[in-house]
């Protein structure tokens, strides 16, 4: 196995953003990380809502659980929207927000004394970083095609 074969072996893990097909793969990996967040929150919401035991006489408890349920739905809708923006529109800001979500999830996992899914969460952070790299490369290409100088801030 030569040096070129070894570099091809890790293309899925850290795509080269100078190549258009690899850049698209990096953006798609960022979208997959956002999908991970959305689906994991949906799963948690499903598990928690199926085990809720709401006492009928306590109206404050019902209102509190309704508010928490709505907040949790927003926590699901936001990553879903960000994922769609990364996947369809190559949105750099959305990719950064997905990366922030993933890093927060890993930090909460560490604070919660670890998890069986810790390796998958670290992998999702790497995928989110690739999404940021891919969308940043797309943004630089769009700026150069519009004739804007590369020294201009990209945010």
Automatic annotation (TrEMBL):
Keyword Transmembrane in record: yes
UniProtKB keywords: Membrane, Transmembrane, Transmembrane helix
Transmembrane stretches, start-end: 31-50, 62-84, 91-111, 117-136
Name this polypeptide is given: Uncharacterized protein
